[in-house]
Amino acid sequence: MRDTPSILELDQATMQRLGHRVAGVVAEHLAGIRGKRAFTTISRETADRLLAAPPPAKGSDFETILTTLRERVFANAALEPHPGFIAYVPSCPAYPAVLGDWLTSGYNFFGGAWTVGAAPSEVELVVLEWLRTWLGMPAGAGGLLTNGGSGANLTAMVAARHRAIADDAARVAKLTVYLSDQSHSSAIRAAWMAGIPRANVRSIPCDADFRLDLALLARAIAADRAFGLIPFMVVANAGTTNTGAVDPLGAIADLCAREQLWMHVDAAYGGFAVLTREGREKLAGIERADSVTMDPHKWLYVPFECGCLLARDPARLKDAFQILPDYLKDTETSGGEVNFADYGEQLSREARGIKVWLNVQFYGTDALREAIAYSLALAPLAERCVRDAPGLEVMAPATLGILCFRAHPAGLDDPAALDALNQRVLRAVNASGRYFISSTRVRGAFSLRICPIGHRTRERDMRELVALCADIVPTLSL
Ligand SMILES: *Cc1c(COP(=O)(O)O)cnc(C)c1O
Fold first, then answer.
1. pTM of this prediction?
2. Within a domain: 325
């Protein structure tokens, strides 16, 4: 063996040059993003034609590779950080958080064990403590940052299962979990993955405001107990993906206390509204949950991937997940040091706290609160515009950053015709390139849906979007 530099090593000047180049590309992209199309997609066939190729035996020049990426990859995807991307739940990171992501991967800290990644783990603890105080959960609550809301929901589900039956496998078939019919699919999948029988995942109907119906919930629990099943968990929503609805969290907390059920709150996107006074009031009771899911990659302006699970008693997570094989014995901690690998499924994991921490350090909570409050006011503004626009109607009033509406021209009342018309409105709006909106069903009716929580989306976007919809309708129904 010759003691020469690694074949993969680059010298400092080269790293510097390539890094500047990449930062320049991203800065140019973000500075001019409003002028680009919010939504672009291509077929698998086209994508194959552009990109399918065996790995090259010899490397290429960086500039050539970058050009390929920009022309063939970056140009052929929707732009989440675009001000017009208001479909689904957008992820619109602030640039300092992006830099935090780059720094984290540049150093490539190990976020799974304290001995290896001590201070980066401390940063994650600090961030979790911030989130805990924002939610108003009791001191001692904690958890971990995850790949996203799906990972957080799964982690909570496994911990709740473990608390209910430990490793009494014979009783798994009787475990029963309660969600609302508006719950996110990831909560249902979490139950499936946790081994809860699919037939025991109860979808409880909602009231007229899309909130979980408490009386129906109580009745379902009683019926299941009478049948010999083991109710163990309620998944409540603080911001449903469909309409932004917040379940009656305080009353659900009372019921869970009475019934000794684990109360989980899925606040993946909506939880950050607690930074504002309005959101704080709307989410009252969330602090009583056994666990809460939040997604910093949604409304805390951090890039993918960053979710969070906070548990009232983090020891419950450790009970469910900790395992100490021989090859990890030397990572065991004795003081307050935390091995995040003991709290969830991942061993090797990104030190995700750094990008959140950097973002909060850079802006401060006042600016973040102001940004969240601004976007919280956008859906209500859009709702007022819809109410003023001829031929449009509100399907679900603005709630926690989400509005559902549709075209409904005078004289057109056939449900199937209205659905078909609105599907065409959706396609036309998205084809404009200026906005990317999504759809859902509200009480069975096809509805347009917006979630304007990205920090680039402004008031004029709401006015222009509603005007665009109103203008499109006559051209379609002719
Ligand atoms: C986005 C979302 C999820 C899923 O989170 P991911 O980060 O996409 O995995 C779960 N629940 C709610 C309410 C959400 O908005």
1. 0.97
2. yes
